[in-house]
Every structure is written in C-alpha cells, then in structure tokens.
Amino acid sequence: MKRIITLVFAVALLFSAVSTEAQTLKKLGAKFKEKTERAKDRSDDNIDEKVDDAVDAVFEGEGLFKKDETKEDTEAPVASEEESRENSASDNTASANVSPTLWTKYDFVPGDTVIFEDILENEQNGEFPSKWDLKTGNVEIALYDNESVINFPSTSVSQIVPLMKETGDYLSEKFTIEFDAYFSEFCTTYHIELYDVVNQKNPDNLPRITIDPKSLWMDQFGGTDIPENKNYPYWQRVAISFNIRSLKIYFGEQRLGNIPNLRGNPTGFSIRSEQCHEGNWAFIKNIRIAKGSMSLYDRVVTDGKFITNGIRFDVGKATIRPESMGVINQIHKLMTEHSDLNFSVEGHTDSDGEDASNQKLSEERAAAVKNLLVDMGIDASRLSTRGFGESTPLDSNSTSEGKANNRRVEFIKI
To answer: Which CATH number among 3.90.380.10, 2.60.370.10, 2.60.120.560, 3.30.2350.10 corresponds to the domain 111-291?
Structure first.
C-alpha cells in the first residue's frame, strides 16, 4: 500500500520537545498519519475483493464518442531534476510495468515547443504550488513515494490554472496538454476546461472534459466507457491534442475520443478535482503544455531534419518511456513508407548535472532510440547515432520550459 510521506510528520517526531513550532508540526503529522491509516484499511478491502478481475482489459479498444442522452452533466461525487522530476521510475508511475513495444497503436505526438512545464522542482511540502493560480478550494504540494505531487487535499472541489507569461489566448491553433493523474478509487475524477477560468471567459461555450477510471465525458458530445483497471491506486498519463478544429483525448495508450470539429477555440487550461472519499487522494504531476505541430515528412523535406522532445526516458537512464511511442511509431511509419530516408539519431540534454555524465547519457539515449527502431523492423544500416550532451541548447536552461525544449532527440537526414 502506497502512502503519502509527509516531512512534517518526521520532523515532529524528532523534535517535538524543541519549540512551539515543533508542537504544531507534531499535531499536523498525527493528522496525516490518521488519514493514511484509514486510507490503507479501505484500500486493502478493495484489493481483497474480486482481485482476479483487476486488470483484465486496461489497454483494449480505442473508443469513439457516442452520444448518451441518459447521462447527466454532473459534478464529481462528493462523500459525507534533470528528468527525475519529469518522470519517476517508481512502480506506480503513469507507465510502470508497461513495455514501450506494447503501445503499438499509440499515436499521440507532443507539440514542438514547450510553453509550460511543471515538474514540481524545488517545491516545499504543504505549500501552494508556485507555478499555479487558484480559482477555488485548496491545493498543496505533498510528497508521495518521495516525489512532489500537486494534491487536491479534501472532498471539497479545488480548481487551479497555470501561471503563464501571457494571460490572453496562449494556446495556438495546434497544441498538446499532458499530465499524470492519480486514481485512488473508482470515483476519482478530473475535470478539464480548455480556457483559463481565472483570467479568461469561456470564449465559445467550450465543453468540459471529465475523466474517471471508467469513463470519459465531454459536454455537448457525450461520452465513452473505459475498461476499468481495478488495481487501485495507480497513475495514468492523460493527453490532449488539438489541431485547428479536431480534438483527441488519450488515457494511457488508449485514444478515447476523436472530435473532428470542436466548434470552438481553446484559449487556456484549467483543472479541478477533489477526494471522492476522505483519505483517498487525488494528485497530478508532470504537467506540460506545448504548441505547434507539423508532419515529420514535411519537416524533413523543409529542414532536412526534425526535432522532438516527445521521446521521454526514465530518470538518469536510457530507458524509453511508453508515452514516447506516439513519436516513435510515427518515425517507424515514416521510414517504412520512405525507404530512401536514413537518419543520424542525435541525443541532447539540459544543463543539469555534470558535463561528462550528460554527454554519456545523450549517447546512450540516442543508441536506445536506434535499437528500438531496429527491433521494430528498421534496418540498422539506415540509422547512426551521436550524443551532444548539454553543448547545443535550443533554449534557455534557466526555466523549466527551456530545459524541456533542450531535452530532445534530433533526426538528421543523411
């Protein structure tokens, strides 16, 4: 059973007699312990019940929206460093225990340029997340599996928006949104608005997107069911792709919805959630918004190369994350359809860490990408590899967004 580990509780136990502040910390720590013990009891009961049905069809089917006139638009039920911050390699991350080669139908490709990223770097436990603004409720940083997460800490609805350099329409005609969501029980729910509820008005009566472990619902368009993974709690990657008019929504490797015409112009991003039952946590992490998109072939023809920050790796390793398969599947398709295309696969890092380590890591990651493509059927003679470490940045290394743009793989036509 996973537990929220709070630093305040540990400090309170060690220094309870030192000062008045320590006494306050001790009381807060005791409160968290009580909640996590209650959560454990409930989770153990859930795991024991019908465990054989736990993971039967998590990644089956693709699902398109079908209008369901019987389902009401209701609120969620309310009961009485370099890349370590980007993607943890723990057992319960969004893609844990899933081989990248299983995501063969995944076609999500992130936008070209990251305009917002929150990997919760240098955040303080118990504080409000520094890169967000609050619309309603209460949100705080918590520690889960020794990693910072954004916590919706009560059964009251809380809603937040990212702090952007621009407060107007900051989403281009082509953009993507990604985040990891934590599902602690069947009714854990996340609501997404495609505008900034603090700084913007809903420009075109844009539909709200509602995701829980069993279904996706979208106002005006209806919903679709999700084969339920009953092996709670778990993380899942949620991704949204918008291209001029069309909208796609992904839950893990599944594409749940494909709306050909949204009939509106998204201008921003807002998310809200709450604990469905007290002590059953709702978290998000690894939030990224990116803009721009062009077919890989058009980029090769125009520029002689293409650059992607959509190939992700485990912390400090050359292990490719499953969510990278949208990009890799497209590259495989491109090289299969155009047998004359050969590439130099070139790895790049941000400036965090030692120069020598980053150089070695970039070389290993480029080789890992080549090896995966070869395993998928591309002839090894068509691919070479190089690593450049942190030596050729595309963006500033002084911001999270700049570092995200610098962590990239380039495919240079040869």
So the answer is: 2.60.120.560
